[in-house]
Amino acid sequence: MSNPKVAFICVHNSCRSQIAEALGKNFAADVFVSYSAGTETKPQINQDAVRLMKQRYGIDMETTQHSKLLTDLPPIDIVVKMGCNVVCPYLPSSYTEDWGLADPTGKNDEEFLAVISQIEVNVKKLAELVKSNQINLL
Question: Strands 5-10 and 78-81: what pairing?
């Protein structure tokens, strides 16, 4: 069986979901395939997220990622909602969880980095759950 497909979703697919996609590719590529998407798109990924991800991990999200719609995704096994503060988008899947993260857009670097750190922790935890077959994907 191939690795499950994970979609990190939010409304605009410009910040938290993009960070999660990048960290999923960085820390869990051997466990799952990472995607991100939203119900709307933005012309570019949040520039604070781009800058801080380059500084912290050496990841340049702008070279490998762009804002995508839910309809751009292949069939997904696991959906992770970032925490939308509105009705989160719906995407069919075998398993769904909501990380309930505050949007750091417009906040200072310290708040942004706290969200990035939490996404890293969550991505690694999700990878462990998938690896240990604690998520039923049937």
Answer: parallel
Q: Is residue 50 part of a domain?
A: yes
**Structural domain for 122, as ranges:** 5-131
Q: Is the pTM of this model over 0.85?
A: yes
Quote the DSSP letter at residue 57: H
Give residue-wise pLDDT tens across range 21-63.
Answer: 999 999 999 999 999 999 889 999 999 999 999 999 999 999 9
The β-bridge partners of 95 are: 78
Domain count, the chain: 1
CATH label of the domain that carries residue 110? 3.40.50.2300
Closest CA to 67 of 1, 134, 11, 4: 11
